[in-house]
Design a protein that fits this description.
RNA binding; 5% strand; two-stranded antiparallel sheet; 166 residues; Exosome-assoc_fac/DNA_repair; mainly alpha; 2 domains
Amino acid sequence: MEGINTPNFENVNNICYGHPNDDKLFETLKDFSISLDNLENDLTYAVKAHNSPKLTIEEQIKLDTFLTYLNSTLFWMYLKLQGSDINKHYILHDLSRAKELLAREMQITCSLSAHRLDITATKRFIAAGIHTRFVDMDGVMVTEAHYKSSVGDAGIKKQRNNESTQ
């Protein structure tokens, strides 16, 4: 019975409770313990960061949302361990709301880091393009100057006549 109180899982295989050892159950418990340790470490780090005066308002909002999600997750784990029926429990609403907030924050962050259109440069390109004539050269649009150099002036007049008759 000495292996029960130790967090080390090496001794668990030696314990027999009158049931055959179940490797799948052991792996599940081991994964659960690792997940719980990770959550506790994240919580410790987040609480330390929460007390920092250097955080901006945006960072504080992100951290508060993360802490809400983390605490809801820990409470959900507690309820599951107690065998409670959580299908109708309010914690599911809290978890889904925190997930939505985290997803929305990520969406805002991505949209803020997206490339922006330089309006003045765009206006210059459009203004320059308005004064440029384009000619259809076998399905490829080329400038009139390029078309002249490849076909000659006679080809341009022929092209204009074809366009006016259509």
